[in-house]
């Protein structure tokens, strides 16, 4: 199977040379216009923060028919990527139970034959170009979009170790303003990266802190919609607390990020190495538990009459997977890893479901 992202090559290689694609480009059907947080879109199908490393990637997947494009998470200062490996396939297509923290996944050495069944794991460390590089590139990405397409820019704070929490909150706010200035139509705060071995990976479990970040993002973003990327919750009460805390500041949530697990070789050694034992699991194996979280959030928003929308992510590689989320009340459905193998997914979904 050809892949647009070459997992055996470095992040920098993929940044400079990707996406790799032999063509032909999919034919994208015309679809009626829909609303996405006040913006007109051809479809509510997109790619979340991850695969779209820069403007070249956004240009490619926009031409392939994805209409909500997220620029991979950026920071207020340069941050190198972790060493290879950064992305591996793991040995399951049944569901990763978020409660079973004792479980570990084994790395697969060969690419699985059916991409719709792939579960994988990433450990990049949220690398970022310096703002002097990513801001002009965001502007290029915005220019690459066609009518009915929307650019989200994902940001994360980089507080110095031991610095007060207020520094992190104001970094998020400053980043929202920078993303807006660069050309973002929506700004997103990543509160959930499970592959970073610091407390910043768990921000979304702290309702008060999530609320404070939403407020800072709101200020920095001006009149742009603000989204918060959340990880997996094993407790429904915490979902409710977070939604209440961000209501009135954020426009919505993107959920969920990968589910954290140890990823090991056959001999038990860590695949990603020391300090990176735990990483985010993506794809087929997280679909059911992501769907459960999305359903809980949509129901809580309706019951509490909150002014928030839910953008769904997690294990979508077939139209049936996407239907699960739309039927659950998601505003949009994002495909994180599957488009790496099949850039025609959005075009095919739109042909079968012009209403999406
Ligand atoms: C290569 C790659 C890099 C990722 N980097 C980020 C990131 O920088 N920020 C973020 O919020 N999520 C990141 N993610 C997580 C995705 O946004 C998404 O939550 C995850 O892939 C689950 O969706 P999936 O099951 O469709 O793959 C990344 C995913 C992939 C595949």
List keywords for this structure.
356 residues, alpha/beta, TIM Barrel, 8-stranded parallel beta barrel, 5-stranded mixed beta barrel, 15 strands, 31% helix, globular, binds flavin mononucleotide
Number of strands: 15
**What is the chain-wise order of helices and strands?**
HEEEHEEEEHEHEHEHEEEHEHEH
| Overall 3D shape | globular
Mean pLDDT score: 94
**Oligomer state of the chains in this structure:** single chain
CATH homologous superfamily (4th level) name of the domain at 46-83 and 124-253 and 302-351: Aldolase class I
Strand order of the largest sheet: 3-4-8-9-10-11-14-15
**From the helix content, strand content and strand pairing, which structural class follows?**
alpha/beta
Radius of gyration over all CA atoms, rounded: 18 Å
Each distinct ligand:
flavin mononucleotide
CATH architecture annotation name of the domain at 46-83 and 124-253 and 302-351 = Alpha-Beta Barrel
What share of the residues lie within helices?
25-40%
Point out poorly predicted stretches: none
Largest sheet properties: 8 strands, parallel, barrel
Q: Count up the helices.
A: 9
Concise synopsis of the structure shown:
This protein is of the alpha/beta class. It has nine helices and 15 strands.
Ordered list of secondary-structure elements with their pairings:
Layout: H1 11-17, E1 34-36, E2 39-41, E3 45-47, H2 55-63, E4 68-74, E5 87-90, E6 104-108, E7 119-122, H3 131-144, E8 150-155, H4 165-182, E9 186-190, H5 207-221, E10 226-230, H6 236-246, E11 252-255, E12 259-264, E13 278-283, H7 287-304, E14 309-313, H8 319-328, E15 332-334, H9 345-352
Bound molecules: flavin mononucleotide.
Flavin mononucleotide (FMN) binds next to strand 4 and strand 13.
């Amino acid at each position: 199977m050809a892949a647009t992202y070459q997992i055996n090559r470095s992040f920098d290689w993929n940044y400079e040379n990707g996406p790799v694609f032999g063509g032909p480009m999919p034919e994208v059907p015309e679809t009626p216009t829909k609303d996405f947080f006040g913006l007109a879109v051809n479809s509510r199908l997109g790619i979340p923060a991850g695969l779209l490393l820069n403007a070249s990637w956004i240009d490619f997947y926009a031409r392939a028919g994805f209409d909500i494009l997220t620029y991979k998470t950026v920071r207020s200062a340069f941050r190198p990527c972790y060493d290879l490996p950064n992305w591996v396939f793991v040995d399951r297509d049944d569901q990763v139970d978020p409660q079973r923290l004792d479980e570990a996944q084994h790395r697969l050495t060969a690419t699985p034959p059916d991409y719709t069944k792939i579960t994988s794991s990433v450990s990049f460390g949220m690398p970022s170009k310096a703002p002097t590089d990513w801001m002009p590139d965001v502007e290029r990405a915005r220019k690459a979009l066609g009518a009915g397409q929307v650019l989200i820019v994902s940001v994360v704070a980089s507080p110095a170790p031991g610095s007060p929490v207020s520094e992190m909150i104001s970094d998020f706010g400053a980043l929202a303003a920078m993303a807006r200035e660069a050309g973002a139509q929506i700004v997103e705060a990543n509160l959930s990266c499970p592959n970073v071995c610091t407390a910043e990976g768990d921000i979304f479990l702290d309702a008060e802190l999530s609320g404070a970040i939403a407020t800072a993002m709101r200020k920095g973003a001006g009149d742009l919609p603000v989204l918060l990327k959340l990880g997996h919750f094993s407790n429904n009460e915490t979902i409710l607390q977070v939604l209440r805390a961000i209501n009135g500041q954020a426009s919505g949530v993107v959920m969920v990020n990968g589910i954290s697990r140890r990823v090991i070789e056959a001999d038990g050694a860590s695949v990603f190495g020391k300090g990176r034992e735990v990483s985010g699991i993506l794809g087929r194996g997280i679909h059911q538990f992501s769907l459960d979280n999305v359903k809980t959030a949509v129901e809580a928003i309706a019951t509490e009459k909150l002014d928030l929308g839910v953008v769904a992510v997690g294990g979508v590689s077939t139209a049936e997977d996407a239907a699960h989320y739309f039927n659950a009340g998601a505003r949009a459905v994002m495909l994180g890893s599957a488009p790496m193998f099949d850039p025609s997914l959005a075009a095919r979904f739109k042909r079968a479901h012009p209403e999406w």
